[in-house]
Amino acid sequence: MKKTMRNQTTLIRGIVVLLMILSMLVLQLVIPLSATTPKLIIEPEQKDVTRGERVHLQVKLSEVQAFKNGVEGYSGTFQYDPSVLTFIEAKNKISGWAFSTAPTSGEIKFVGYDDNPPNIAQKEDIVAFEIEVEILESAPSGATKIAIKNAAVADTQFNELDASTKESVLNIVDKSNPEESSNNQLKELIIKDGDTKLELNPKFNENTLDYKLEVGENTNTIDISALPVDEHSKVISGTGSHELKPGENIIKIVVEAEDGTQKTYTVVVTKKDKDKEENPGGEKPDPKPEEKPDPKPEEKPTPGDKEEKPKPDTDKPTSETGKDSNGNTTIINNNSVNNYISTIEGISLQPNLSHDVNEYHANVGKNTDRLNLKVTPEDQNASVNITGHESLTFGANQITITVTSPSGEKRDITINVNRSETESSAYLSSISVGGYALNPGFKEDVFFYNMIVEHDVNHLAVTAAPKDANTNINIAANNTLREGINYIKIHASNADGIMNTYVIEVIRESESTGFKLDHSVLWAGVGTIWILILAVVFIMTRKKPKTIVYEKSQHDEKI
């Protein structure tokens, strides 16, 4: 009997332990509790770099599996030594995610997040974005540190946690002249009429220098692009847009190797002549019968008339003549009139860059006393001159960018820059979300809020007011709400490059029920149940006190 009871007690305890383990596993799947967080790591494409070289730095999201449902966002500050490096650009590498930066001298604030519900959470290690920097010519030899500070990552519930990072180092070495490449060949030569690629005769080969090409009478311009075999060589002339005249057009594409030696590829483009098409063979033009009566009576100069100067041949391409390293004469077609700008980096313009706009406005912070502008023309043979950007005073400043096309046509772009005299912050003074109350109530230094809306609410009108007038505001993801969890992001950035992101978690109720069980309530409920179960088990399995029965002996009877 006693053995049977012991077996029952052991069985009950085993079942209780098994149920507890199973319930904890289920809760772990439903509510991720992670002791570690993903990392943001800088991985340079190369460690040893030379002055004047551009280097790509990949910023990788690592150990993403620490969040069971994946990573939904990240932020931080990339720091570098501005006396050694200069920032060129940053590019997003996660498709479907939003990405923005606020660069200042020595640091770049960045933020990336999934802005396209349903979520595109990252569940595997991935390159989040890429930063391109250039080594300054004045940079000293030796190691320079690059690092990410104040890094954070967010899970699919937009719970933001600190992310661990690791410093990286670039080693600046002197360029060795004896090892400079002499490769001045092209790997690719492409000629297009609009979006149509034109075929060269013969087909392109890096060792073939002379080509022919025929185009129709309606082709007035062609675009040429060329890619060198050696990454250290460069195309110094001949690419870009070229206007064509009827007949032969000679275009020279000159490639310069790292050691300065040059090679010239020649393309003779023949544009069909409409007049010759109407008179096949060109041997029977017989212009005399087609001539009108003798025009001489109409050419009677009168005293005092200025002698008419011959008109310049506008169809004749402008050209420059020079010699390459082999002594060969080169002719560079400079007929392009393209003086438009492709990109302006280093400043945020209002409005956005456009062919139709020649005047822009921008605001910068109190600490910005100069601008490092990078202007890229559409025609790489065009020249760019920038004035007014190196010394900014408080208040109004004017920067002028003059772009001169190869044919000499000039275009002036004006940027009116206002430099603030006071410190500014990237805080909001208020947020309004379609008449709904925020939880908690709005405070400028609180960046996460939540709210619940009815099922029939599929979008929200969101407005936000900046604390400082120079703060730019961008609102995302408020126009389409899906059932369940949605995140509205409000980005506030000022002229000094400071950026804050306010996040509003909006739960749109399902059509059947608006009930939502809070995680903390779930944990508390489960804990209470198991305390009760343990109490019951303890009572049931408790050993009962033995009852001692005394039997009367003969000795007792005698007494």
Automatic annotation (TrEMBL):
Pfam families: Cadherin-like (PF12733). Residues 325-334 have a biased composition (Low complexity). The keyword Transmembrane helix applies. Residues 266-334 are annotated as: Disordered. Residues 196-271, 353-419, 429-509 form the Cadherin-like beta-sandwich-like domain. It comes from the Bacteria. The chain crosses the membrane at residues 12-31, 521-540. Residues 270-323 have a biased composition (Basic and acidic residues). Keywords: Membrane, Transmembrane, Transmembrane helix. One of its GO terms (molecular function) is carbohydrate binding. InterPro entries: Cadherin-like_domain (IPR025883), CBM2/CBM3_carb-bd_dom_sf (IPR008965). This is Cadherin-like beta sandwich domain-containing protein. It comes from Erysipelothrix inopinata.
